Amino acid sequence: MKPILLQTLPLTALVAAAALSMIPSARAEVPATCVKGVDLAKLGPKSIVGQGPHGEKAASPEVLALSEADAAKIKEKNFKVGISMQTVNLDWSQLQIQGITDTLKKYGVTVTGVASAEYQVDKQIADIENTIQQHPDGIISIPVDFTATAPTYKKIAKAGIKLVLMDSIPTGLKHPEEYATMVSADSQGNGQIAAQILASCVAQGGTIGLVNFGVDYFSTNERTKGVREWMKANRPDIKMKQVDFTDPPKVSQIAGDFLTGNPDVKGLYAVWDQPALDTLSSMRAQGIDIPMTTVDLGLQSAIEIAKGGPLKATGSQRPYDQGVAEAMAMMNALLGKETPGWVGVQSLPVTQSNVLESYKTVFKKDPPAELTDACNKAKPACN
Prior knowledge:
By secondary structure, the chain is an alpha/beta fold.
């Protein structure tokens, strides 16, 4: 039958078929143990792996619990707190804000406003200075650039305002004089989760690419450090290449150029979920199908994981829970209580087999229809 089929095909189809037969399939090089060879119950660290920016050991969010008497004091004071974000255009940011506002509202604390710097240093400096002028009792913030914004953050303590930080500490700020605490996920642990899954999808001696944030930033540095250290300790045969970006909207182009110039790359790690999605767009435009892992869980990344496509897994933060911890830390600080330098929140491994449950854990609500639909189409692998 094959000769008869070939005789009936147009010449252009024959040429195309011959060309396609000569292209090595990235999928064919993916081991059968990809993801399936990893025991989810044993995946990832069981305790906080990383240390704080100044070498601090992680304190548990449980140390921030308030007594009934303390809660009553908070409600009597009518405290006000402002929030300054790097951007509000991420699921991560929205969940942080929701965790903060839900918790503060429970104790009668007013949120005066949420500023979004959109990754612009000058905008965040102006946001913080404007918030200071509103005379809140506290500010909860994530710095866009912890060096360039440091002098502005120092003004917060000078104004007698308490400061709780997310994810990073501006350069030179001292604990507890200039900030009450910094709350973050175990970024290094999340990087280890991403590395462990990716390693299961890369053959012996393979090469992976790291799509890394090129700004000196604690949480993202820790993620990539977690990937590199896990690979060196557990899969030293895997070669690593890295491409950095500094402007998130340009990731698609940067990742696409990197993949074009490095055809030996058989797996990818992206430093958070939006760059992973942008990289995935570049892969699809080039017809590239190789496994990828990342850190953080958003709706779109959850859908991609549910589909069982190139995005295999993520080491997720628990941003709502981190927001709760930030709010609790702020209220402790407002009462004059001692607060730890760093509060760490446990990592959460997410794969196709637990994506629906993980979505509930992270977002504190049932998965939307678009996620459950994607999962239903991929059953029984997706749950």
